[in-house]
């Protein structure tokens, strides 16, 4: 059985209108058969947040929604909470403080059960803090700014559902290029992934590759530092970093990207239907002209005049060919 | 005579403490022989702004500072104002509204005189709006955000002192990746240059290449869209753009970058003096060991013991060689 999809949501996903992302999550969880576990450990408003998602997921057709909210590493060893994850067909991690979330769950039976759910094919989704924790390396906290500066952010260990990566969220809205660039400059084996609000990176395994599809209103920004030239190993505290040669991919909804090979998967080109209809007409005209030349041996100028008359009269071709 | 240096300043340059950038500008203008023309057309507080720079440049050693502030295209045809630029050894354009600046000066005798000053070797500097106008294509205005979105910004014609480029300023502070990415996605022949506050891109001509050096507290971000894959020619109004494969260079103070070939110019590696001293000592030890082996024919273990004793006693080498 292949691993389940990951849904990495950049925060502030639409809950009132089209609900594109949450609808896709409920469907991936099994729709009318869905049994969704909501993990609100990151949030300081746990019960209230669970209530919102409970109502939403049921409205979108889920059969059952349960709250599993360990508040300490001791809770995260509770077999009853772990058992809830074993029965889930979908896991959803809320926003809040990602360092609290990772500090409570990573490396516990509860954390292992999230990883196991993913591995047995269950969809694992998370928004904001719940997005960050999915990567192997997690942005713990850090300030805004476009320019990477030494020590402007900190890395902690995430769940590692997504290999060799670091995820950041609220990317468009909170000016987070700097902190993501700092991390990939210091760790160029990682791929930096910045997810905008109301946007999800949906990652699925395809032939051993992690393939990402973008859903929602914003974009997913990928920073590939494979060929970086940097001074991040020696720059002084708070000084801007040299980060030269990072390859940047901004990917709006509908884009597909191979995270393993780090390449855009291009779609077949879209055709404009009007342009196609026009081209078909020109092709018919040229074919008719060729037939006329063969039949009458008249000059091209006379043929163009005949064509103009045909278009003007808009008669069907087999008739006006005879009267020309 | 080669063209003069350009100083492209990202706004809010330090005026009270080290004044690194303004000091370099006054020196490039000729120091005690400097005759600086301040162009405050962009600013709504023209006379006050001129007063500030007048005081600063004189304090930094300039002989003379003159205000030249056309307020209309008619002013920009005034031969007296043009004559001031012809006598200047340095030109400084203030911040403010860059679209007002370009609308008043570009394509007038006054604008031509700025270009002519640059071409005869005079340093031309500008901060904020005065930075933007130096590129061939100018960001006219536009909102913040990290993700490029269709029509989030507008392009107007700049002075073109810097070829095939678009400059943005306050880059770190005002979350301007999005608008610069939108412009290079629509115009992939341009190089996008984002300059942080209190930071300058100093561009000089070297063997027909435009070579940039970074000065100041922040960084200069270069976006090279040469190999971009984008949908910017067909994306709908306000939707995020596909901008895949843009090469990103973040360049702090001291970096040098060839804007013509779009490559980082690397410096010789810096050596840590402590590490160098240690290496020299190891090298001396190894040479001594080789001499000892040749003289005594003893085993390496015994030699290492002798070396340990030497270090312990810290005697000069020519003596302890005899007593070992």
UniProtKB/TrEMBL annotation, chains A, B:
Top EC class of this enzyme: hydrolase
GO molecular function, one term: peptidyl-dipeptidase activity
Catalytic activity: [L-4-(L-arginin-2-N-yl)aspartate](n) + H2O = [L-4-(L-arginin-2-N-yl)aspartate](n-1) + L-4-(L-arginin-2-N-yl)aspartate
Sorted UniProt keywords: Carboxypeptidase, Hydrolase, Protease, Serine protease
Region Disordered, residue ranges: 292-324
The enzyme's E.C. designation: 3.4.15.6
Function per UniProt: Exopeptidase that catalyzes the hydrolytic cleavage of multi-L-arginyl-poly-L-aspartic acid (cyanophycin; a water-insoluble reserve polymer) into aspartate-arginine dipeptides.
PANTHER family: CYANOPHYCINASE
Stated name of the protein: Cyanophycinase
């Amino acid at each position: 059985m292949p691993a389940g999809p990951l849904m990495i949501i950049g925060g502030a996903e639409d809950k009132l209108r089209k609900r594109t992302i949450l609808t896709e999550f409920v469907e991936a969880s099994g729709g009318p058969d869905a049994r969704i576990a909501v993990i609100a450990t990151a949030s300081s408003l746990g019960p209230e947040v669970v209530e919102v998602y409970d109502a939403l997921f049921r409205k979108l057709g889920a059969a059952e929604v349960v709250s599993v909210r360990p508040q300490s590493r001791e809770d995260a060893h509770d077999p009853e909470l772990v058992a809830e994850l074993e029965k889930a067909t979908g896991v959803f991690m809320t926003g809040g403080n990602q360092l609290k979330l990772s500090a409570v769950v990573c490396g516990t039976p509860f954390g292992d059960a999230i990883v196991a759910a993913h591995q047995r094919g269950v969809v694992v989704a998370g928004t904001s803090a719940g997005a960050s924790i999915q990567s192997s390396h997690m942005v713990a906290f850090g300030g805004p700014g476009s320019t990477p500066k030494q020590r402007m952010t900190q890395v902690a260990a995430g769940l590692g559902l997504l290999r060799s990566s670091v995820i950041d969220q609220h990317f468009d809205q909170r000016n987070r290029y700097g902190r993501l660039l700092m991390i990939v400059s210091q760790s160029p084996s990682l791929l930096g992934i910045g997810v905008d609000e109301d946007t999800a990176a949906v990652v699925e395994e395809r032939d051993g590759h992690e393939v990402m599809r973008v859903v929602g209103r914003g974009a997913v920004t990928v920073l590939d530092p494979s060929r970086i030239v940097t001074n991040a190993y020696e720059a002084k505290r708070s000084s801007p970093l040299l980060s030269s040669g990072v390859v940047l991919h901004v990917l709006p909804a509908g884009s597909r990207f191979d995270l393993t090979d780090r390449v855009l998967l291009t779609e077949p080109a879209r055709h404009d239907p009007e342009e196609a209809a026009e081209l078909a007409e020109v092709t018919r005209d040229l074919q008719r002209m060729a037939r006329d030349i063969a039949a009458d041996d008249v000059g091209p100028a006379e043929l163009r005049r005949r064509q103009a008359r045909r278009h003007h009269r808009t008669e069907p071709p087999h008739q006006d060919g005879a009267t020309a």
